[in-house]
UniProtKB/TrEMBL annotation:
Lineage, top ranks: Bacteria, Pseudomonadati, Bacteroidota, Sphingobacteriia, Sphingobacteriales
Keyword terms of this UniProt record: Membrane, Transmembrane, Transmembrane helix
Protein name: Outer membrane protein beta-barrel domain-containing protein
Organism this protein belongs to: Mucilaginibacter ximonensis
Keyword Membrane: yes
TM spans (from-to): 6-23
Keyword check for Transmembrane: yes
């Protein structure tokens, strides 16, 4: 199991390096025209979940990683709508499998200095549903792609499981 974590860390370092290599910073950009469609792909590492009065870390007996991707329809420099699909891969007892896929439409509230707040509803194939609030920051803005970091805060209900509150760290590319 420890070899898997080392492999995952190496893959993440390579992905970050490649992302930074291909993202070209641009200081003088032309004004954007709207509406505009932007795609993205990212990797999200859950940090901790509170459910049933217990806090569970992601690096205990199981490891979960999510791969959110989607399309954003930017209506203006202040607002947009988004649709995201997030497959989740869970590793337990050296067996990895897709544990759930979340379908998450929502609104994007774009703020100053490349910050945004995204509010989504979520419907998971595992039978859970809820909402997710995401704090997002573009850290490297390029001409053709931008690197972003985000912190999602997820609340889930349903499937005869206690309400859960969880947070993750997410990194990805807008293109």
């Amino acid at each position: 199991m420890q070899a898997f974590y080392l492999y995952l860390i190496r893959v993440a370092i390579i992905a970050i390096s490649v992302s930074l290599f291909f993202v070209k910073t641009s200081f003088a950009q032309a004004p954007q025209s709207y509406p505009r469609v932007v795609g993205y792909f990212s990797i999200a590492n859950p940090l901790a979940t509170l459910s049933g009065g217990k806090i569970t870390g992601n690096f205990s007996k199981v490891y979960t990683v999510n791969f959110p991707f989607g399309l954003n329809l930017l209506k203006s420099d202040k607002f947009g709508v988004s649709f995201e699909i997030t497959p989740g891969v869970r590793t337990e007892n050296n067996i990895s499998k897709v544990s759930s896929v979340a379908f998450s439409p929502g609104g994007i509230f774009r703020l100053k200095n490349n910050f945004a707040v995204v509010q989504r509803v979520a419907f998971e194939t595992s039978g859970r549903f809820g909402f997710t609030t995401i704090l997002n920051k573009i850290v490297v803005k390029g001409k053709d792609a931008s690197l972003f970091l985000a912190v999602p805060f997820a609340t889930r209900f349903g499937n005869n499981i206690p309400v859960s509150l969880g947070t993750s760290i997410q990194m990805g590319l807008f293109f």
